[in-house]
Amino acid sequence: MDLKPGFHAVPEGHLASVVTHLEMLAPAAPRPEHGAETLRLDLVRSPSVDWYRALFRTVGADWLWFSRLDLAEEELEAVLSDLLVEVHVLRDGSAEAGLLELDFRQPGQCELAYFGLAPALVGTGAGRFLMNRALELAWRGDVRRFHVHTCTLDHPGALPFYLRSGFSAYRREVEVAPDPRLQGVLPRDAARHVPLICERTVSGASGDG
Asked: Which UniProt keywords apply (predicted)?
């Protein structure tokens, strides 16, 4: 491998994260749910780009999700209108409170492309409700593999949650990408737990001795 052990500089204005890839090769049993009485999951066929991006921000801004915000509108529209891509919205009563996106475009496989909750529902048991529905929806027809990836910018409970849900980790990668807050893709106060490191300006001596 090209990456040697030790510290490696991250370019100015960029973020680095460790990505863990996980997979499930047979359906896992659903785990017990609680606090799901007001929740329901709705399939949204061919959602509009504006609606989708608004929900994507609600769910992902705290974890610096940016890939679908950075995608050209026509490219995102093509993905969302693909019959093999399913976008589901989690509703808590009338409020839109979560996103589940399943991608069946690879034959025999389903990718858990996006999975997340609005901040108010994190830690309430809604994640288990959403994962149980994801398992029900993913394993269909000729699907033999269900896979997902998460990274160290995500909620710290995300990786343990996926492991408890029946996924197994099989690969790690380091991802380096422009900080979406400096690109104007997300507000500068998003993800306060991840320091915003701006380009430093080094000034010369004042000349006054």
From this structure: Acyltransferase, Transferase
